[in-house]
Structures are given as C-alpha cells and as structure tokens.
C-alpha cells in the first residue's frame, strides 16, 4: 500500500499529503527536434528519476532531439545503444499498447526504448531493476507484455537488468556519448590510436600523456572515444580517469 491509498495520511502518520503533480510539458527548443514519445513520463517525484537528454541518430539525419526517460538506467541503456555502429534509430517511450494483466485485467503498457538497427531489425527494450526481476509475478507480467506487443511495430522484445548499469558505468557512458556524438576529434583519435600501437610500456592512460605532444584533456577525451568504439579496453565499472588501466583490444 502506498500513501496515495490512505485518505487521512496527515492524522495517521503526521505526514502532509501533497497533491499529485501534473506532467511537465517541455517547450519547443530552437534547433532541437521534439521528443517522439507516445507517453510523457516527466513529472516531479520524490522517488523516481525521470529525466530528459539530447541525442542524435541517423534516422533523423543526426539532428539533435529530446529523449524522455523514466530512470537513469534507461538513459544508460539508451546511450550504450547510441554508441553502437549498428544503430540506426533509438526511440524513447515510443509505443503504448494494451496487455492482459495476469489477474485478468487489461492494462496499458508503454515500451521504454525501441531500437532500430541499420539492417532494419526493430527491438523493444524493457528495462527493470533486479529486485523487481527476481519476483515471479513480474515475469508473468513481462511475458504477458511480450505476447501482446504489436508485431507490426517490432521484430523482437528483450529484457535488460538495470543493475548491470552501475553508477560508474552510467557515468562512463554519459561521457562517451557526449564526446562521440557532440565533440568528435578524428585527428586526435588517430594520433592516440597510433601511440597505443607503438607504446610497448602502455599500462595506464597517463602513460600516453607522457609519450604524446597532446594536452592531457585531449588524450583523455580521445581514449574515451576509442573505448566507446571498442578500439581500446578499460574497466567500465570504475570511473575512467588518467590513472585507469587501459589495453589494446582484438579489434586494434
């Protein structure tokens, strides 16, 4: 039972019950495409972490647009998808449909993310935290949603455990997405990549800074872009910095 289910919260618990807040409607932003959402999840809340962020995809000609998400985990999943060279389009809150709830009721569900690959394959992405995924009744609901999604709108349906996206991983993905999509530097990236191949004593990122005639900031940013593209390896579950261990990958 939640506080919303109790009529006299203030008398019972000494907590002032506040009215439910309305959704936050975003105004038009010059030069930025509006969100393509089917449902707006953005509202003030003491518990959820709804958010917005700007991204670009090939489907819209790499024009900046707004994404609306219900959690920071959804942001991280979306940013990881956006970094993939196989991605053609990513949509947030793109599709709502009815499904039969296990108790017999019909309920609407809005998909968190829809991915479209360059091959044309469309995948619906369901993001949920592990605490919830451990409950059998949640999987009953997920299977009902999987059975109900319109086959004309997608080719597949996958479930992602939000706990796989630790706070350091989310921070790394945030930085990588910004640098790859909004701050490219191809010249520096190639210079750093060549140095990686030649430096026999490579262990930490700061080893590159000592060996190159580039600023530490530029080397750091290039390393993040190279890691994002799979050309360098690093521990994504620790916030990457100049003291981080980096290594050559098989794709080098």
Write a structural description.
With 252 residues, the chain is of the alpha+beta class. It has 2 domains: 33-164, Trna Endonuclease, Chain: A, domain 1; 167-248, Arc Repressor Mutant, subunit A, CATH 1.10.10. The chain has helices at residues 9-13, 72-83, 130-133, 136-148, 167-182, 186-198, 205-211, 216-228; strands at 51-55, 65-69, 87-92, 96-100, 106-110, 113-117, 122-128, 156-161, 232-234, 246-248. The strands form 4 sheets. The protein has a 4-stranded mixed β-sheet with strand order 3-6-7-8. The protein has a two-stranded antiparallel ribbon with strand order 1-2. It has a two-stranded antiparallel sheet with strand order 4-5. Strand 6 and strand 7 form a beta hairpin. Helix 2 (72-83) crosses helix 5 (167-182) and helix 5 packs across helix 8 (216-228). The longest helix is centred in the last third of the chain and has 16 residues, at 167-182. The radius of gyration is 22 Å and the shape is elongated. It starts with 8 loop residues before the first helix and ends with a strand. Mean pLDDT is 90; it is low at 1-9.
Total of helices: 8
CATH secondary-structure class of the largest domain: Alpha Beta
Mean pLDDT: 90
- Residue share in helix: 25-40%
Amount of beta strand: 15-25%
- Any idea what the CATH architecture of the largest domain is? 3-Layer(aba) Sandwich
Structural class, please? alpha+beta
Number of structural units classed as domains:
2
Q: Name the shape in a single word.
A: elongated
CATH fold name of the largest domain: Trna Endonuclease, Chain: A, domain 1
Number of strands: 10
**N-to-C SSE string, H for helix and E for strand:** HEEHEEEEEHHEHHHHEE
Radius of gyration: 22 Å
Largest sheet descriptor: 4 strands, mixed
